[in-house]
Amino acid sequence: MLAAAAAVEGQSEHPLAAAILRAAQDAKLKLGSLAQFASQTGLGVSGHVDGKAVVVGNAAQMHRIGVDAGSLAEAAERYRRDGAGVMLVAIAGKPAGLIAVADPIRDSARDAIAALKAEGLRIVMLTGDAEATAQAVSTAIGGIDEVHAGLKPEDKARIIGELQAKGAKVAMAGDGINDAPALAAADVGVAMGTGTDVAIESAGMTLTKGDLAAMVRARRLARATMRNIRQNLFFSFVFNGIGVPIAAGVLYPVTGLLLSPMIAGAAMALSSFTVVTNALRLNRAKL
To answer: Where are its TM segments located (predicted)?
Structure first.
């Protein structure tokens, strides 16, 4: 069953597919010959392995092909309660078993969520996983304000649109093909560098290590950059606001003072030096 599933998942870009393929390789399983591979977005994948139809995916995928996977329901729910994602496998039109994939939660994820919450952000989880899996992960991480499970790609994009319609500015972090529409719809799409190419192409920013802690640093750097820009604009207006009127002769009728071209040149150089020096302070920003 694992060999058949790995043969099909080997053509998928999904991170969970890579885990299944790696498990088959670790077990030194021989993968069969694959034909007619197809990906059903939000459901799973399918293909023919050594002439047999192999379908991998969620319960909706099994329902699509008319396979009754009720015999696997109890075991699947048990894994989901432990926070694992469950994929059902059908071979030749019959339920063959299930594959549970558990992604260890990084300590940095908990710290990142806590830091974002402390800065006043509302955290929403959008996932295609089952409700039990999503709730288990939410409980383990902590700090999740709202959980939406069992979503298709268009559902994620729709929820982001609903949040935006209420006036929210939305940053979406994701790594899979199913996240691409939501990443494109968000005000800021953040792709994990460990994710799929289509997710990276759909996002405006990529975290090379796939670590949420980098998202916290990126947000703090963005705020520091905007603060620095406002400071630089202030310095420029001060220099030009004083220098230009004097150079135009505003004070000449009263004091006979005109701005020497040498002084004007020095003032412009000092203005540029001040702006550049202030910008370089970002190198020492505490993120």
So the answer is: 233-252, 258-280
In this structure, what are the phi and psi dihedrals at residue 74, rounded to the nearest 5 degrees?
-65, -45
- The Cα 95–Cα 75 span in angstroms is 13
Specify the pLDDT at position 7: 93
Q: How many CB atoms lie within 10 A of CB 207?
A: 21
End-to-end CA distance of the chain, in Å?
A: 47
Region 201-207: mean pLDDT is: 77
Shortest CA distance to 87 belongs to which of 12, 17, 180, 31?
Answer: 17
Instruction: Give the Cα separation of 44 and 83 in Å (integer).
Output: 19
Partner residues linked to 206 by β-bridges: 191
Place of tokens 């099909």: 8
C-alpha pair distances (Å), 225 with each of 221, 228, 235, 279: 6, 5, 15, 8
- The CA–CA distances, whole Å, from 78 to 95, 100, 130, 133, 136 equal 18, 10, 12, 10, 11
* Cα separation, 109 vs 190, whole angstroms: 15
Percentage of the residues of the chain whose pLDDT score is greater than 70? 96
Distance CA 116, CA 82 (A): 26
Q: Specify whether the CB–CB gap between 180 and 14 falls below 8 A.
A: no
Euclidean distance between CA atoms 283 and 287, whole angstroms:
10
